[in-house]
Amino acid sequence: MVSRTTADAKGDVVVLLIGMRVNRFRAVHLWLPVMLAMLRMLRELEKDPARGLLSKVLLTASPRTYYVVQYWESKDKLYAYATAPDAFHHEVWARINRKERAGKLRGQVGIWHEAYVVPEGSYEAVYADMPAFGLAAAHGQVPLEKRGRYAKDRFAYRSGGDATQGLSSAPVGRKPPRR
Fold this sequence. Notes:
Layout: E1 4-7, E2 13-22, H1 28-47, E3 53-60, E4 65-72, H2 75-83, H3 88-101, E5 109-118, E6 127-128, H4 135-139, E7 141-143, H5 151-158
Antiparallel strand pairs: 1-6, 1-7, 2-4, 2-5, 3-4
């Protein structure tokens, strides 16, 4: 039997994608500090859960591009960390801004981020034979049946709809009969 679960998220979900792109591999002196700074910021956040980082997943998109998917408690906590004068992030941005003004970055390394606030009712998740991962690592996981076997039912559950509406007793992997 396949063990299927879903994320136990409630309310809005805050997701930050943040990463770097190595534009010139030979410019190690410019891109390695960026990578190390990201790792240091993650350690800082892990040591202080009150800052609001719930979970993270480190990924690579190519040999040049590395990024982190972060799940935050709220957009206010994400913004508070990004602007906190006592956070390592503040020091890193000051360094980057000085280097840019001095023309020392010269396109050797790219940095980027995208932040999303996903309203309740606009996300759903399913995990088969997986430990807590991604959204489930951030918010916990529950058996799939608690939220609905099908995506439309999990969306309905989160948006306050009737979670049992449209549910079928069809076995896992089989579609309900047509009516």
